[in-house]
Design goal:
single chain; alpha/beta; Immunoglobulin-like; 3 domains; 8-stranded parallel beta sheet; about 25% helix; globular
Length: about 550
């Protein structure tokens, strides 16, 4: 007899191979069409057993003592300062797509993600109380060399829920402390302290040398200016202690370096920050290696983030959080057919979960547009970035406003975190025979007193849209989780999947059977049941198991 687990979305079929004489008589009586269907299902069931069987390393009953509590705002956003109004809209015309997408995250964690209006354009900003929301001074080639903004600018933040905290980045690049003072004063007035998480001076100060700073500008110089400015700003604006986010470097300076220079000696530093972009299209040599196979590689992802372990440790040694204040996969605005694919979703899921497992508190995914002043060798023309999680307004390049295929990754991550604020995470040891396999155990005492409450499993092996069935079979895996299921219970599964790693179709990138192209769930939610404690994961797919 054939038993079909319908909850598996026609992916997995299971057989009961105990056939009695009565069963044979019943089968003989089946109408030809029904018999054909039964035989077809039987053949699919046999076919599904070709998945490679994975034996998990033992999962301890409790989270390791070194694991951190998962911040419900782990998956947050950095939005290019000069493009925040595009993403947020304003009071009279809010961006409904952005509102809906953010609400999907709130539904899963109970709070809104942090919002950081920042990026390179913040270092040429000027607040004017009489200005419209946004006035851009641009070069003939579309480079933004000055951004003037007024009180209405903050209406763009109003579309995010009150529980979304704001990291307010202000102008350090122009080397004029009054610009920073006026911007902080405006933020206090129009956002309010109840929503300001931290204040930040400038964007990637390690890239300043040779501009308005001398070519020999160093970590020591940055630290000296930071201490001088924070003293002036604190006195002028009566700022609370421990309110500044220090750092925000791109690559050449470090948290440890500025701690050694004495940045955390005056009581103003609240937390430390650095930026990460694993690949780049800023120049031809880096553009050449910014490929989908290189990006969607578990070993590459973990090795890249491991570089920040010393900086995480340095921040923690001072009793401070370490955050990635701006990140994405490919700097200089992403890459077509790489960062606008479903592969970006898998990269995001593995990057954020691994980052949290090594002690990073929050990660701010950058959203924006190509800026011609980023590099004179970049490959992208002006327009919204290929790595954006959603395109906030209609454009000629991207068509209608919509979510990207990668949006489902933030649903995967936020549902892994949950609402309890008691979750802890740890990556399971790697399996040498499956280098593209990654599993993260999540413990939550509000859900389960002993043993993992959830397990996030990623299969980063390549399954493209055009892959043959044999190629798909070769990368599919099956994991037996029966020993972790509580007696009398049945594990449940939510699946993140698409037509393939290289798919750019948002309508077919799904979380638990639903797509979110227009900000709201489309389709019927499909929560699968583990059968015999097993789950099959195709290549380029991820599942979240609830025990």
């Amino acid at each position: 007899m054939v038993f079909v687990d319908a909850s598996a979305g026609m992916r997995t079929f299971y057989m009961l191979l105990k056939v009695s004489p009565t069963d044979v008589k019943l089968l003989a009586m089946i109408q030809p069409l029904c018999l054909l269907i039964a035989v077809s299902l039987l053949s699919v069931g046999l076919h599904a057993t070709s998945a490679h069987v994975i034996v998990l390393p033992p999962i301890p009953p409790h989270a390791p003592p070194t694991s951190q509590l998962l911040d419900p705002r782990l998956a947050s956003f950095s939005i290019e300062f000069s493009y925040l109004p595009s993403f947020g809209g304003n009071k009279s015309n809010p961006n409904i797509l952005s509102q809906e997408l953010i609400q999907r995250l709130v539904e899963r964690t109970g709070v809104g993600p942090d919002i950081r209006p920042g990026g390179i354009t913040v270092d040429s900003t000027v607040f004017s109380p009489n200005s419209p929301a946004l006035v851009l001074d641009e070069s003939p080639t579309g480079g933004i060399y000055k951004t003037t903004f007024g009180p209405a600018y903050y209406e763009s933040l109003g579309i995010f829920p009150d529980s979304s905290l704001v990291v307010m980045d202000v102008n350090l690049g122009n080397n004029t402390v009054s610009f920073a003072r006026d911007e902080i004063a405006a933020a206090i007035q129009y956002i309010g302290w109840d929503r300001i998480r931290a204040l930040e001076l400038g964007n990637e100060a390690d890239h300043y040398p040779g501009g308005l700073r001398p070519s020999g500008w160093t970590e020591a110089d940055y630290t000296a200016q930071f201490l001088n400015w924070t003293e002036i700003l604190t006195a002028n604006l009566t700022l609370p202690s421990h309110i500044f986010q220090a750092g925000g470097f791109a690559d050449s300076w470090s948290t440890q370096g500025i701690i050694d220079e004495g940045i955390d000696t005056t009581g103003v530093v609240k937390l430390f920050c650095q930026h990460t972009y694993q690949y780049s299209t800023c120049d031809p040599s880096r553009n050449a290696i910014a490929t989908l196979p290189n990006l969607i590689d578990h070993g590459n992802i973990t090795a890249f983030l491991d570089q920040w372990k010393p900086q995480v440790a340095a921040a923690h040694s001072r009793g401070k959080e370490f955050v990635v204040g701006e990140y994405n996969s490919v700097s200089c605005s992403g890459k077509e057919n790489v960062t606008n694919t479903f592969g970006q979703a898998l990269w995001l899921a593995d990057t954020v979960l691994y980052g949290s497992s090594i002690g990073i508190s929050r990660m701010y995914l950058h959203q924006g547009a190509t800026l011609v002043f980023q590099s004179n060798q970049q490959s992208n023309a002006p327009g919204f970035s290929w790595y954006d999680l959603w395109y906030p307004v209609p454009t000629d390049r991207y068509g209608p406003a919509r979510a990207s295929p990668s949006f489902v990754a933030y649903l995967f991550i936020t549902e892994a975190i949950g609402t309890s604020q008691q979750s802890r995470i740890s990556i399971l040891p790697s399996i040498s025979s499956q280098p593209q396999f990654a599993a993260y155990a999540i413990w939550d005492k509000t859900l389960r007193s002993s043993g993992p409450a959830k397990l996030a499993i990623l299969n980063l092996a390549t399954r493209n849209v055009t892959s043959t069935q044999t190629e798909k079979d070769n990368v599919a895996i099956e994991v037996d989780l029966s020993e972790y299921i509580q007696k009398g219970r049945m594990g449940r599964v939510k699946r993140m999947t698409a037509l393939g790693l290289d798919s750019t179709d948002s309508a077919n990138a799904t979380w638990a059977g639903q797509s979110f192209e227009n900000g709201v769930a489309s389709g019927v939610e499909n929560v699968e049941n583990l059968v015999d404690g097993k789950v099959t994961i195709q290549g380029s797919e991820a599942v979240l198991v609830f025990f």
